[in-house]
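Bench notes, afternoon.
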Amino acid sequence: MDGTVDNGTAWTVLADDPLTTAATDLPELPVLLTVLDGRPTRRDASL
């Protein structure tokens, strides 16, 4: 994946595809990584 992350940009990596996950299961979908302004703010231990 190429590109840049601009200031104010946030990325969230979930454990599964939220588009194919049942709506009732979305609140329990683990967050693996959150990046804000190009810096990780949360990283799961499995990464």
